[in-house]
Specification:
It contains 15 helices and 17 strands. Strands 2-1-5-4-3 form a five-stranded antiparallel β-sheet. The protein is rod-shaped and about 135 Å long.
Length: 481
């Protein structure tokens, strides 16, 4: 048999020692017994109705769970809101257990209450933070359906009930490429990215998103996505690029007249040589004059085309391209010219670089401009054999293109001018706008261009494109891809 001391403690002291609040009520809903823990929260309650003690009411509650338990003898667990002994709101979880006679009649109910006021307060704080924080928050399940979203997200994107994230954010019919949430589900790690979405009015929104795994052990059941609207930041960046472009135009307009004058001088010289050849019936002189005219007409065409491209804001036509392919195309374009002038072309290209969102025509133009300048620098050098080396690699999540020549190089004064105005080291053979156009295109891709040069040794031009700053594919382009 159990020890009598143990039995005595279980039947007397346990009632007072347990941490939950215990009250025993009769069929008249009056409290006939309670422990100290109950009294500390609700006050002295012996002989008083439970609704008076719990809720400070004068009448029984409309939906009294105790009355239901007296009626059907079922154990019930429910959450209640009342007032403590000081009149403050109290949240508590009540476990109701009926005490029955042998005939099944319920004579008393034991109400065991756990104070969850602090838990409710924290839940309310978290809910307020979840709803009022000025960023988009969504919880996704493994099917990529939105199971919860804050009010800021619903206000921007509309109702989120059981929608796929790509339907809600981008009005797409299928999952996005390079999805941060997909990556977070896969490796249980945090992932970030920039995305373009559509709000409930169909207006484009750019946002930076971070996906955090909500783990239950090693398996990720849900991912929470937090996103910040960066549309205005992007617009400011574009405005900055536009301002820099316009400033560059303003700085170089003064040199435009000089460039046109040089071309006109070349045309006048060509006309004179051509006309004098006709007068003398000198075929060689006619051919010489025609060659001068032809070169200067080409310069006019090139200058006009570059000026138009430079002066108007062209949005890059972004596609997913392989950077290595761009290098191979440009090398092929200049292969014959290099051979003609005894210039060796060397390619160092990492073929494993992943595709990136770029404007293929724009990148091709940038590389072609740098290649043309490198070959010209080799021609201006007195070295019998020159080399142009083109590199393509990825470093620290940046795509890097390099064009290095072993040509004539540039001194300090020339280096200060190459990106600022219609400046050329090619004499009458250049328009002085190629590098300006190249810099503009690089900036429109969120990149930067740098240059190193040593007189007599050669020059190195480097274009660096951080992946996180590359232009994003539009929703239409992503569907095409």
């Amino acid at each position: 048999m159990p020890d009598t001391t143990l039995q005595s403690w279980l039947h007397t002291q346990l009632f007072e020692q347990v941490s939950c609040k215990i009250a025993i009520i009769d069929r008249n809903l009056k409290i006939v017994e309670h422990n100290r823990s109950f009294q500390e929260l609700f006050g002295q309650g012996l002989g008083r109705p439970c609704y008076e003690i719990y809720k400070k009411k004068k009448q029984p509650c409309d939906q009294c769970t105790a009355a239901l338990t007296f009626a059907d003898s079922k154990i019930r667990i429910n959450e209640e809101v009342g007032l403590d002994r000081n009149g403050r709101t109290a949240h508590y979880l009540v476990h109701m257990v009926p005490i029955t006679k042998e005939n099944g009649e319920v004579t008393y109910i034991v109400e065991m209450s756990t104070d969850i006021t602090e838990i409710k307060r924290l839940q309310q704080e978290y809910q307020t933070l979840f709803d009022k924080v000025p960023c988009y928050i969504a919880v996704l399940n493994r099917d990529f359906k939105v199971v919860r979203a804050n009010s800021f997200m619903q206000k921007t994107f509309g109702s989120t009930t059981s929608q796929y994230c790509w339907e809600l954010f981008k009005h797409r019919d299928e999952k996005c490429e390079n999805c941060p949430a997909d990556l977070a589900f896969a490796d249980n790690d945090t992932h970030t990215g920039e995305q373009i979405g559509l709000n409930k009015e169909g207006k484009e929104i750019r946002y930076a998103v971070t996906a955090y795994p909500l783990t239950g052990g090693n398996f990720v059941n849900h991912v929470i996505e937090m996103a910040v609207d960066v549309t205005k930041v992007y617009q400011l960046e574009q405005e900055k690029i536009e301002a820099e472009r316009l400033a560059a135009v303003g700085q170089t307009v003064a040199g435009l007249a000089h460039g046109i004058k040089n071309i006109l001088t070349g045309l006048e010289g060509g006309v004179y040589i051509f006309k004098s050849g006709l007068d003398r019936n000198d075929r060689d002189r006619i051919d010489q004059g025609w060659d001068v005219l032809h070169r200067n007409i080409d310069k006019i065409s090139m200058l006009a085309k570059n000026l138009l491209n430079f002066s108007k804001g062209i949005v890059p036509k972004v596609k997913m391209i392989r950077p290595a392919d761009m290098v191979h195309e440009v090398i092929e374009l200049y292969k014959e010219t290099a051979r003609k002038y005894n210039i060796e072309l060397v390619t160092e290209c990492d073929e494993s670089i992943a595709p990136a969102p770029m404007d293929p025509e724009g990148i091709h133009t940038c590389l072609a401009n740098l290649m043309s300048n490198a070959i010209d620098a080799c021609q201006l050098s007195d070295k019998p054999v020159c080399e142009v080396r083109v590199r393509c690699k990825e470093e620290d999540e940046c795509i890097v293109f390099e064009v290095e020549d072993k040509g004539c190089g540039m001194d300090y004064e020339v280096k200060q001018k190459v990106f600022t105005n219609f400046f050329t080291t090619k004499g009458g053979g250049g328009t002085g706008i190629g590098l300006l156009l190249t810099r503009k295109m690089v900036q429109e891709h969120g990149g930067r261009i740098t240059m190193e040069s040593v007189p007599g040794q050669g020059s190195l031009f480097r274009m660096v494109f951080p992946r996180k700053r590359l232009p994003l594919l539009s929703a239409e382009t992503e569907k095409e891809e």
